[in-house]
Each structure stands twice: as structure tokens, then as C-alpha cells.
């Protein structure tokens, strides 16, 4: 039989073996202070990374937007080659009575993007034919129900920084080119070079327009889509794309105006 002294010795041995393990387990645990310090460090790191990520996202959107405008310039060149030098529909030679703009007063299938040679529209199923009974000329400021501009509008007309733009397009044409009947190859730029004259720019998200002019700049043009220090993207007459602040962009809008370009009244938000 096991004596009382042997049982006591075994208990002491168990205690001697187990206690170090228990003490070791206690040493591994975080204190509340240590946990709060770790959380604080993580929060600081996140705070440092978020602005960098936001800036990287803005730069990526701007690069994609520039790519879209460059593709638009290529499509203009194809249209130019088949239409005697006209960049977009403005009426031929001013003798046939055609309108000088093809914007919101026309149904979506007759507006300026649909006159371009977008491969996207050639390969995809075409939208349904236009029914004039569903699109009265004086409909107002919104599309008739069931007749959206979306299926008629190529995706390259969407800037990724422009979320849900009205009538599915982010870009507008410089109507002064139509008013002055400027064709490709022209050197009549009022003292500017072809690399300074604006062909297309970015519109405000909630605006329907397809054209921009200096007098309605504040209403139509989005001046700071890619940041207060950069401005917005513009396709120039020579085919390249620049990011310009409002004053510089307005100078390239209507160089034929003898008056100096006035800075826009719209100011960046504080």
C-alpha cells in the first residue's frame, strides 16, 4: 500500500512540475496597456497609408481618363479622314442647312458620339431603333422613360472618376470649333498652337450637355475633377491630352476671341 508520505511527495512533485508552466502561460498574455499600444500603432499606420492610397487611386483614374480621351482623338482622326477634315458633325461648308451641334436636342442615336467609328458599337448589338413618338423635341431636362442614352454611348466616354454621369458621358466638345468652322489641319488659332487649343474636356456629373463654350463654362465644365492642384483633362487639337487648371483650359477654348480669356468665377471648394 502507498504510504501517506509517498502521496504527499507525489503532490509536491506535481506542484513543482506544473507551477512553472502556469507561470509561463501568464507571462505570454497581453496586458490591457500593451493591447492599446498595439491598436494605437495600427491606427497610426492606417492613417499614414490612407492618403497615399487615395492619391494613388486619383492618379490611376486620371491616367485612365487620359487614355479615354486619347482614344477619342483617334476616333476623331478616323472621322476626319472620311468627312473632308471635319472633326465632328458641324454641317458641311455651311450650305446644307445642317445643325452645327448634335447634342441634347437630338435623340441619343443622333448625337455626336454615334457619328464616330467606335468599334464597341460595331461589334455589340445595336440599340433599338429610334421612335420619335417617345422623344419629343421639347421633352425637358431628362430622357424619356425607357429611352436612355446609355446603350448608344461608348464606354470610353466615361471618366472613372465621374460616378454615374448624366446621360452616360463625361466629356464635352468645344463648340467654338464648330462655330468657327475649324477643320483638321487648320493653323487659324488666334496666335495659339494646335497643342494649346482644346477639342474636348470634362463636364460636370449632373449636366446633360455635349458641348462647352466660354460663356457657359461655370455651368457645364468640371474644373477640378482630378484635384485642386491639377484641374481636369483636355484633349488638344494635335491629339495629345493635358491636365490643365481652369485659366489655362479657358485660354485654349476660344483663341479667336480678341478679348483676353477671363478666369472662371468658380473657385475650388475650401
Structure in words:
This protein is of the alpha+beta class. It has one domain. 36% of the residues lie in helices and 7% in strands. The chain has 6 helices and 5 strands, in the order αααβαββαββα. A 5-stranded mixed sheet has the order 3-1-2-4-5. The N and C termini lie far apart (91 Å).
Question: How do you describe this structure in short?
Answer:
The chain has six helices and five strands. With 270 residues, the protein is α+β, with helices and mostly antiparallel strands.
- Weakly predicted, low-confidence segments: 260-270
Shape: elongated
User: Strand order, biggest sheet?
Assistant: 3-1-2-4-5
N to C succession of SSEs: HHHEHEEHEEH
Average pLDDT works out at 77
The value of Rg in angstroms is 32 Å
Largest sheet, in brief, is: 5 strands, mixed
Relevant terms:
270 residues; alpha+beta; five-stranded mixed sheet; 6 helices; 36% helix; elongated; disordered C terminus
